[in-house]
Amino acid sequence: MEAILFYLTALVAILAAFFVTKCRNPVNSALCLVTNFLCLAVLYVMLEAPFMAAIQIMVYAGAIMVLIVFVIMLLNLGTATKSVYTHGLLGGGVLSVLMLFLTNRFVANGQATGTGGEITSEVIQSYGHTELIGKAMFTDFLLPFEIASILLLVAIIGAVVLSKRKV
After folding, report:
1. Over 80: is that where the pLDDT of 124 sits?
2. Alpha helices (H) along 47-120
3. Of 19, 53, 78, which marks where a domain is finished?
4. Of 17, 111, 128, 129, whose Cβ has the fewest other Cβ atoms within 10 Å?
5. What is the C-alpha R_g of the chain?
6. Is 151 a member of any domain?
7. Residues 6+ away with beta carbon under 8 Å from 34
8. Enclosing domain of residue 51
9. Digit-coded pLDDT (tens) for 40-95
């Protein structure tokens, strides 16, 4: 039963990711991206990481997608005409199938990286997911966390400046 749920979720995630790039309307692409984020949250639940699933839904499917839709509406991307590019479709498809095959071989033959970490199942059970994630985020990865927040702020300011220039 778990395998059926995994394959169904993976199929929906792949289809949603495909339609993110193929939808002509940017709002429809954003809705397909929300579907992909929700599928990722289901995969987190299957990996027994409920905190990450909740954060995935609240932060990405909620707040970030509201920001993306807000920027789409500010930039008025719906009126732009898109030209069709098919010359890279075959190459991208072949590369995707090759990467899928290689990933499948790595996973089937054992560990993908061959390294083990210091956080084992026993450590997770004793401390908990949330404490370990918070400790790592605000000690080891504080600088990348702050850089990402500054980049998001700069992108929002840039979108507002670009949209106000046309008015």
Report:
1. no
2. 50-55, 65-75, 89-108
3. 78
4. 111
5. 20
6. yes
7. 61, 65
8. 1-78
9. 999 999 888 888 888 889 888 888 888 888 877 777 655 554 555 666 777 778 88
